[in-house]
From TrEMBL:
SUPFAM superfamilies: GHMP Kinase, C-terminal domain (SSF55060), Ribosomal protein S5 domain 2-like (SSF54211). Keywords: ATP-binding, Lipid biosynthesis, Lipid metabolism, Lyase, Nucleotide-binding. It comes from Flavobacterium frigoritolerans. Residues 25-184 form the Diphosphomevalonate decarboxylase-like N-terminal domain. This is Diphosphomevalonate decarboxylase. InterPro entries: GHMP_kinase_C_sf, Mev_decarb, MVD-like_N, Mvd1_C, Ribosomal_Su5_D2-typ_SF, Ribsml_uS5_D2-typ_fold_subgr. Residues 211-339 form the Mvd1 C-terminal domain. The keyword Lipid biosynthesis applies. GO terms for biological process: isoprenoid biosynthetic process. The keyword Membrane does not apply.
Length: 360
């Protein structure tokens, strides 16, 4: 397994002056949540996510060798137009990863990025965005070091994405991705995401995720602040232990396809994440009244129909509705009939489990 030192390149054997790459990278939805971190984006507990398929960022990276300079230079375009307010985040990312990508000051970059989901939909683009950028930098490094193995390529891409935004490391490769060291998952690491190593039951093939857009406004509390509030949180240690236990339960669920057990773990994780927010100091609430309306309607529908549909939440008010492919028609009808009224402007996005980043 690679260590952080393995990602510091020794010497490049090849060169290139100019060119471009383009990658798409998807968003992901955590089933066991990452909430709380140590220095250098090391997670306080392991997490696991479904990679999404339709919600993604597409980023083109053009590079042009420049004269020696001690600065990073880059232009940033969002949907084809210069976007100055995204630049500080990218600048910070470049500073963080410079020791792992020492060529970054040798080129002028043009980063041209767009999302397939509506801007300001309340869906965070940091996971897909940082993953897409990391893939592009790895493509350039692969030209400079053609001997690089595929395993190194993907693990370092995930490692770099993590330094941009923690959950981004789960948006690189695989349908089901684990991030964080877990005793019972072979190859799992705090440094990067890895594909869940065992076979996954067919009940999860093409698993569906319909994202209900409840509130598209800016979050009042960023996830950076939220993670920080887990330091000295009264329930932190118990919560971190619980994440390990829940991941153990999902190992069994992925093997036997038990959807009742899946639902219990996933919904409990979502509510625990929000419980941690509500019990932080200062405390905060990211759910909205309509988030709770939707949760209650899902519970009622599931009770009445026995259809194994459940919800999860990320750090916001939107609701991810998760269900197996064979009940898609019935669940979409239910969403139309009973849940759309709780969505802002009736908006929702249909997604499903996907494979990860793609070179375009
Ligand atoms: O990657 P960050 O720092 O934006 O944190 C994301 C945390 C959650 O989305 C709430 C949970 C997760 O594991 O994705």
């Amino acid at each position: 397994m690679f260590t952080a030192n393995d990602f510091i390149p020794k010497k490049y054997t090849s060169d290139i002056t100019k060119g471009n790459f383009e990658w798409s990278a998807p968003s992901n939805i955590a089933l066991v949540k990452y909430w709380g971190k140590k220095d250098n984006q090391i997670p306080a507990n392991p997490s696991v996510s479904f990679t999404l398929n339709n919600c993604k960022t597409i980023t083109k990276l053009a590079f042009d060798k420049k004269d020696f300079s001690d600065n990073f230079t880059f232009d940033l375009l969002f949907e084809g137009k210069p976007k100055e307010d995204f630049k500080p985040k990218i600048q910070k990312f470049l500073e963080r990863v410079f020791i792992y990508l020492p060529f970054l000051k040798d080129y002028h970059f043009t980063i041209d990025t767009q999302n397939t989901f509506p801007h300001s939909s309340g869906i965070a683009s940091s996971a897909s965005g940082m993953a897409a950028l990391a893939m592009n930098f790895m493509s350039l490094e692969k030209v400079l070091n053609p001997e690089m193995t595929e395993e190194y390529f993907y693990q370092k891409a995930s490692f770099l994405a993590r330094l941009g935004s923690g959950s981004a490391c789960r948006s690189v490769k695989g349908n089901v991705v684990v991030w964080g060291n877990q005793a019972n998952i072979k190859g799992s690491s705090d440094l990067f995401g890895v594909e869940f190593p065992n076979a996954i039951h067919k009940n999860f093939n093409n698993y569906q995720d319909t994202i209900l857009l409840v509130d598209k406004g800016e979050k009042q509390v960023s996830s950076t602040v939220g993670h920080d509030l887990m330091h000295n949180h009264p329930y932190a240690e118990r919560r971190f232990a619980q994440a390990h236990e829940n991941l153990d339960k999902l190992i069994t669920v992925f093997e036997n396809g038990n959807l009742d057990e899946f639902i219990k773990v996933v919904e409990s994780e979502a509510l625990t994440l929000h419980a941690m927010m509500m019990t932080s100091m200062p405390y905060f609430i990211l759910m909205k009244p309509n988030t709770l309306q939707i949760i209650n309607a899902i519970w009622k529908f599931r009770n009445e129909t026995q259809i194994p549909v459940c919800f999860t939440l990320d750090a916001g008010a939107n609701v991810h509705v998760l269900y197996p492919e064979n009940v898609t028609e019935k669940v979409l009808q239910f969403i139309q009939d009973e849940l759309v009224v709780f969505c802002q402007n009736g908006q929702y996005l249909c997604d499903k489990i996907g494979d990860g980043a793609i070179a375009l």
